[in-house]
Write a structure and sequence with these properties.
There is one protein chain. The protein has 347 residues and is an all-alpha fold. It has one domain. Helices cover 75% and strands 0% of the residues. The protein is globular, with a radius of gyration of 20 Å.
Length: 347
Amino acid sequence: MLDELSLARLLDGRLDLRLVSSIEFLVLFLLMMLVMNALELSGLLNSLGGRLVNRAGSERRLALFLCLLVFFGSALLTNDVVLLGIVPLTIVVGSAAGVKLRKLCIFEGIAANSGSLLTPFGNPQNIFISVRYDVPLWDFVWAMLPLWLLSLALLVSVLWLQFGDRPVRHQHNKRSDRAVAALGVAALAVIILYFGRVLPTIIVAPAVVVLLLSTRHIGRVLRMVDWKLYLLFVFMAFATYAMLKVYTLRLEGIPLLLGSLGLSQVISNVPAAFVLSGAANWRLLAIGVDIGGAGTLISSVATVIAYRFIKRHDPETSIWEFMKWGALFCAAQLLLMLPVLLWLGLL
């Protein structure tokens, strides 16, 4: 019965289904931004990060704790908001502890891109692909699991080699607003039910709004939204829809994988997902744009966020240093994933 309430069913015959999927993506993306703002406002991420830092003891363990917090957090939340919560904490803690702050923030950006690729709600391009291709939650997770596990092993290996065992000082842990955090987590759970194909958008959207209104901080939550970024996504979604009405670029196999990865380096991975959404194989498209997020500085929003924070703290930070580590990680992910894709018969 709930299937009859999906936007695609309700608007079938009235609007182009590609336009419906774009509208649904924009609604869900805005809801995710609002929920993540509520969780950030609650102090939940900073509180969790502070607890982990107090257990670290050494520079290497601190780097592993913070980057893995970003990695796993980005699989459950959207990666850009996880970074907005963790990178400022990293700068405060890292400055006091005297760790390699610049390098740590670079790897947190990489961790955000890599960790978020597992789920359909981990980053904007995955939200779009899951809505555009109507991919169930567990189908998406299963398809992305090999790359996610390879990325995790690669990240841990690099962090282990780049950071030493020098002791770090403990930090005071700030408490979170449990009521706001609980409502934010509940709202996030409702959104996850959409991706699990349990609830349609027409039920999810008002339920999330009611939960956010219950926080009594809806004004601050709305002010925290990066409206310029959101309007950019609105423009990209409708511009791509208009372009696909005229011409659909249909790539398959290796051209799709390399094309989505390469295009992400030039126009960022979310627009790349929009432009190449005429492809039949959503798995290769998702893998390509997600790997591509760790390449150049503009390849993903998460990378830009990490760079902006550390550049503000350390003006001598070089774009090329970010791009060097991002490009190396991107190339390593691709080389490790190619045999898996060949073995699975996707190439």
